[in-house]
Amino acid sequence: MRVALTLYAGNSTRIELEGLGVYSAIDTYAYANSATVTATLVDSDGDALSGVTWPLTLAYEADSDGNYSGVVAETLSVSAGDSIVAQITATDSGEVGYWEVPVVVEARTHRSGYG
């Protein structure tokens, strides 16, 4: 399982959780394609950031292997250089997973040339 998040101040940002799954009693990994997945972004004191309604639901991406995503609106109250934490919770068939992922807020800059 991997969480992908680069947060740019003043921009909409996509949160992606990739490869969510569970191990069975016989040590077989199965992708969890019907989980309820939510995310909340908090500051260093553990307080939810303002400007967005939390928790944000991450939707299952059709025909993927346990991939979920959601979009954080540009109204999120953050500044470049802020250190925050993404709290991700996934629930499926009575199993619960919880992760805290550190995130650094960056300023989006224009590079010369293409891209």
Could you characterize the architecture of this molecule?
- The protein is an all-beta fold and 115 residues long.
- 0% of the residues lie in helices and 49% in strands.
- The protein contains no helices and ten strands.
- The strands form two sheets. An eight-stranded mixed β-sheet has the order 1-3-8-7-6-9-10-2, with no helix packed on it. It has a two-stranded antiparallel ribbon with strand order 4-5.
- Strand 7 (56-60) and strand 8 (68-72) form a beta hairpin.
- It is elongated, with a radius of gyration of 16 Å.
Labels describing this entry:
single chain, 115 residues, mainly beta, 10 strands, 0% helix
Helix and strand sequence: EEEEEEEEEE
Rg is 16 Å
Quick one: overall form?
elongated
Biggest pleated-sheet summary: 8 strands, mixed
What is the tally of helical segments? Answer: 0
* Mean pLDDT across every amino acid position: 89
Biggest sheet, strands in spatial order? 1-3-8-7-6-9-10-2
Report how far apart the termini are. Answer: 28 Å
Strand content: over 45%
